[in-house]
Write a structure and sequence with these properties.
alpha/beta; six-stranded mixed beta sheet; 22 helices; 48% helix
């Protein structure tokens, strides 16, 4: 697994380059590499005397929380299958490997609302199906030989992806997610075949090193309990619901987080008695990844260091855990980039905004932390990007409170959904009304082509302005003003017919206020008088303008 993680990290730029969509985005190779990184770190802490069950459990948990983008979520679900298929096993034979991969494929297909063939899904499915066929023909095949067969089948399936997706064939490339999966499998194969772990290249070690966190921002008075205690419980069979464990931990400390999936319970608590917390958790299974920090001591060291150095702004947890307030029915988490856009969401009632968007897909764990920092009984999550929806949906099973993920693919959809919220309505009604509202808003986006491409019968040159309508590229231009006018008029025509409508122009960080105001004036001159136009400094990266029409 470590070798596979290193291999995709070393080749992530090669996988990124396979992306046929010319818009700057959170590329597949980078997302898959960043998804694998937490698993590599967790596994690096384990000794050599571990079972395949322990390895697969630890990896699956880390992958799930670290998943970024759709490709990362699918990758995590594939290895979640290994965790299920290898449960309670010391070692894995050929049958176990095929069974585990098959379980992962089934989970991945179920997670995608409309599975597309010619993608990582196809590559993994055909590999699993080939493995099952080999088992019928060679029941005594070794695990090593089976992995060779699975990797070879995945490689063959990858070569077929252009025949299944015309856009790949036209671009002359294979599917990027499938290629990333193959790099992971090939990295694993080198070790299974008796070779050394593929080393992580120096650049990746630097770029993915964990950031140090300073405790200097806290004061001694704010530290109620001394020890920050974290650990993972490897659940034993029939251990039951950990609700009693959570209740006990809340009686001996604060900042309690008890999150479980099918195989583990992840625990965090601030307490003066970490031994009591560990003892109570042992009733549910074996403990691993135990970490106990003396927060008062850390504060004193950090304060002393700060006093002896140039003052620096303290680094604090952006989303500190907050227990559910029984008097707060609803809370909101949104994903967005740009201070202006973040402020809009906050003005509409969103308590926690996760930084992220087109080129920076946040992980499941980052979204989960924001959910746990929102002390409501029901938390609505607005991903605001199609490549973040799946990562957000993984928080539903991980959170200790009810989570509803609204399928907002664009910023205007998220804003429209918030405007439709009714604090007096019940959960079901709000879910329905907010979903209807986001489906009615039209979205225009003006960005630049990140690469030369021939996409959807259009020849696109790197650096050209790209105009997108509801996520689809509709034309390229050289003039920013002409692009905004043409795109907005098209959206207005589809939205209003003979009636007036509202247009909001969110201008990005690369557009000056003077330029934005000029675009607004020129646009108003081209639109019917009953169309109201509002200009807002969104400050977003990547997109020069985001246009909302409703």
């Amino acid at each position: 697994m470590i070798s596979g993680a290193n291999n995709i990290a070393n080749h992530r730029q090669e996988v990124d380059a396979l992306n046929v969509f010319p818009v700057p985005d959170g590329d597949t190779g980078t997302n898959m590499s960043m998804t694998m990184t937490p698993a590599r770190r967790e596994l690096g802490k384990m000794g050599d005397d571990v079972s395949v069950a322990q390895v697969s459990h630890a990896a699956a948990s880390a992958l799930l929380r670290g998943a970024r983008g759709n490709s990362g979520v699918i990758l995590s679900l594939l290895f979640r299958g290994f965790s299920k298929g290898l449960q309670n096993k010391e070692s894995a034979d050929a049958n176990d490997l095929v069974h585990a991969l098959t379980l992962g494929v089934e989970a991945a297909y179920k997670a995608v609302m409309k599975p597309t063939e010619g993608t990582i899904l196809t590559v993994s499915r055909l590999a699993a199906e080939h493995g099952a066929q080999v088992l019928t023909e060679r029941p005594d095949i070794s695990a090593q030989e089976m992995w060779q067969e699975l990797v070879a089948a995945a490689a063959q399936a990858l070569e077929k992806t252009p025949d299944l997706l015309p856009v790949l064939k036209k671009a002359g490339v294979v599917d990027s997610g499938g290629k990333g999966l193959l790099f992971v499998f090939e990295g694993m194969k080198q070790v299974i075949d008796g070779g050394d772990v593929i080393p992580l290249e120096e650049g990746d070690q630097k770029s993915e090193a964990p950031k140090a966190v300073s405790a200097a921002g806290a004061s001694q008075e704010e530290i109620t309990f001394t020890y920050c205690t974290e650990f993972i419980v490897l659940k034993k069979k029939g251990c039951g619901d950990p609700v009693k464990l959570r209740a006990f931990l809340e009686s001996i400390g604060d900042c309690v987080v008890v999150v479980e999936d099918e195989n583990i319970i992840k625990v965090h608590v601030h307490t003066d008695n970490p031994g009591n917390a560990l003892q109570a958790a042992l009733k549910y299974g074996m403990l691993t990844n135990i970490k106990i920090d003396n927060m008062r001591e850390e504060h004193e060291r950090a304060a002393a260091k700060a006093a002896s150095e140039e003052p620096a702004e303290p680094t604090q947890d952006a989303f500190p855990y907050r227990a559910v307030d029984p008097d707060q029915d609803y809370g909101f988490v949104a994903v967005a980039a740009g201070e202006g856009i973040k402020a809009l969401f906050q003005d509409l009632g969103v308590e926690n905004v996760v930084s992220g968007g087109q080129t920076m897909n946040p992980s499941t764990d980052e979204i989960l932390k924001a959910v746990h920092a929102t002390p409501a009984k029901t938390v609505f999550v607005l991903p605001n990007n199609k490549n973040i929806i799946m990562a957000a949906e993984q928080t539903i099973k991980l959170a200790d409170r009810k989570v509803i993920v609204l399928p907002s693919r664009f910023i205007p959809q998220g804003l429209s959904a918030m405007l439709a919220f009714d604090p007096e309505a019940d959960v079901k009604t709000n879910h329905l009304n907010m979903t209807k509202a986001l489906e009615k808003v039209g979205t225009g986006q003006l960005t630049f082509a990140a690469r030369d491409s021939e996409y959807d019968n259009q020849v696109i040159k790197k650096g050209e302005l790209l105009a997108m309508e509801n996520g689809k590229i509709v034309f390229t231009e050289k003039s920013m003003t002409k692009s905004v006018i043409r795109l907005t008029r098209s959206l207005v025509k589809k939205a209003s017919g003979e009636e007036g409508c509202f247009v909001t122009l969110l201008y990005g960080e690369d557009v000056t206020e003077e330029k934005a105001q000029q675009v607004e004036r020129d646009l108003k001159a081209k639109l019917p008088e009953d169309v109201e136009v509002t200009l807002v400094n969104g400050g977003q990266p990547v997109y020069y303008f985001i246009i909302s029409v409703e």
